[in-house]
TrEMBL record:
<dbReference type="InterPro" id="IPR013144">
    <property type="entry name" value="CRA_dom"/>
</dbReference>
<dbReference type="InterPro" id="IPR050618">
    <property type="entry name" value="Ubq-SigPath_Reg"/>
</dbReference>
<feature type="domain" description="CTLH">
    <location>
        <begin position="2"/>
        <end position="30"/>
    </location>
</feature>
<protein>
    <recommendedName>
        <fullName>CTLH domain-containing protein</fullName>
    </recommendedName>
</protein>
<dbReference type="InterPro" id="IPR024964">
    <property type="entry name" value="CTLH/CRA"/>
</dbReference>
<dbReference type="InterPro" id="IPR006595">
    <property type="entry name" value="CTLH_C"/>
</dbReference>
<dbReference type="Pfam" id="PF10607">
    <property type="entry name" value="CTLH"/>
</dbReference>
Length: 138
């Protein structure tokens, strides 16, 4: 894909997200191998990539991600950040508006749900990929 060839930062962030997903799914051996083969060489070329890689690999040191100082990498916001970066690169390459509306709307949805959580029981969207409403826990 031409966009990835001309945007090494985007390519690195996609690979970083893949590593995060491997770690999230408990595939430690696969994650380590992937980090060594795919991401470490890029870290040698770019100091900021190396720092991001080290931060991501630090997730492997924790069994309980809630106590992990870099646990935010596992939040849905990290996926959204990577998706927004991909969308912006695609739109820019096609000479469209750089900031698509969908990521902003999803962020607003997440914010609104977080605001409502303590105040009301309501049908909530927990999985943004399916947008399926889930009944509130009673």
């Amino acid at each position: 894909m031409q966009i990835l060839d001309t945007n090494p930062q985007l390519f690195f962030h996609l690979q970083q997200q893949r590593l995060i997903e491997l770690i999230r799914n408990g595939k430690v051996d696969e994650a380590l191998e992937f980090a060594q083969e795919e991401l470490a060489p890029r870290g040698e070329e770019n100091q900021s990539f190396l720092e991001e890689l080290e931060k991501t690999v630090a997730l492997l040191a924790f069994e309980d991600f809630s106590n992990c100082p870099v646990g935010e990498l596992l939040d849905i916001s990290q996926r959204l950040k990577t998706a927004s970066e991909v969308n912006a690169a695609i739109l820019t390459s096609q000479s469209h508006e750089k900031d698509p509306k969908l990521p902003s709307l999803l962020k607003m949805l997440i914010w609104a749900q977080n605001q409502l959580d303590d105040k009301a029981a309501y049908p909530r969207i927990n999985d943004l990929s399916t947008a399926r409403l889930e009944d509130p826990a009673v």
